[in-house]
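FW: tagging you since you asked about this chain on Friday. Here's the raw sequence from the shared folder, copied in full. Didn't touch anything.
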Amino acid sequence: MQTRDEYPLSHTLILKLERRDRLSPEEKQVLESAISRVSDIEVDEEFIREGDRPTDSKLLLEGFAARYKDLANGKRQITALHVPGDFVDLHSFLLKTMDHGIVALTPCRIASVPHTALRTITERHPHLTRLLWLNTLLDGAIHREWLVAMGRRTALGRMTHLFCELFLRLQIVGQTEGRSFKLPLTQAELGDTLGLSTVHINRILQELRANGLVAWRGPTLTILDWDRLMEAAEFDPAFLNLDLEPR
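HL: got it, structure written out here
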């Protein structure tokens, strides 16, 4: 049985992609070979800033990271949460200049994939290229759900929908135990994600606990009633494209 350190660096990315389509042994090796270096990032470190022009894309191996935008009044809006197996800035390969920043919400481990390696993949491996394209399309699908949540869902609906989404995304990459998963965010960071005050976040969490939907102790969130949580969130996992089919 392999330990975590014996897995290839691209393991969680492969799990994420293979939930949607099959990768050949050659394609898995191409992904692994594309990684040039691995770096450790400290909590709260902004490892990509707005205006940067990256020459490589970062694959999150461990930890939680967030895309964010700072406003003139000093407030911050988190526009995406990234978990292991996510490319946090695959889009920088083509967009070139970053229009947002990326910060480590926890200590993170990241792998760098040079854009020259990505260009080679697009020229030599069309199926793998489509799967990496799918990776960015999944980001877009999640963004659309967040837009609907911010614009039309209640505060309770926003939070429960996020919990359902994160549970499934983490389950795909082997980061859950039963109905429990690590959610090492502060209430302030959750507020920056959902567009709510810390007081409002605390009130909703108390309501979810009182209704027997979730328990959140330390960094671990446990879903106590999945069906009722999905109902409260009006959660339909179709946007995560979990069907295994040729792409």
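FW: The radius of gyration is 18 Å.
HL: agreed, and The first helix runs from residue 11 to 18.
FW: great, closing this out.
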